[in-house]
Amino acid sequence: MYFLSRAVSLFCGKRIPVGDYPEMIRRQSRPVILDVRSADEFNEGHVRGALHIPDYKIAEEIESKVPDKKTPVYIYCYSGARAGSAARQMRHLGYEEVHNMGGIMYAGFTEAFPLEK
Questions:
Q1: Contact in structure between 15 and 102 (CB atoms under 8 Å)
Q2: Stated pTM of the model
Q3: What is the mean pLDDT of the chain?
Q4: Which one, 4, 46, 87, 111, has the greatest CB density within 10 A?
Q5: C-alpha angle 11/63/22, rounded to 5°?
Q6: Active-site residue set
């Protein structure tokens, strides 16, 4: 598990401990939590209030669903890889505050963000 976590960190950028995100999100005025997994994965369980856009549709859908590019966006997937890709796409589109929270597979994620169906 350590090597997978390290590889994802190198590929997806600096990692903030998942336990720090709830407080970061609470301090924001209108944050968006974005789930970039498949529809089937999303329907199996997702963070309450999460916006769902599969990673392969980010470029075509994000601007209509999150038009203000200053909106803080917190992205997650299963392992963090798709979230990292989505974050890079969003930064390329001009979004200013994009955070890759990693994936639900990591210890502590579902404690910090219980999943619901």
A1: yes
A2: 0.86
A3: 89
A4: 87
A5: 55
A6: 77
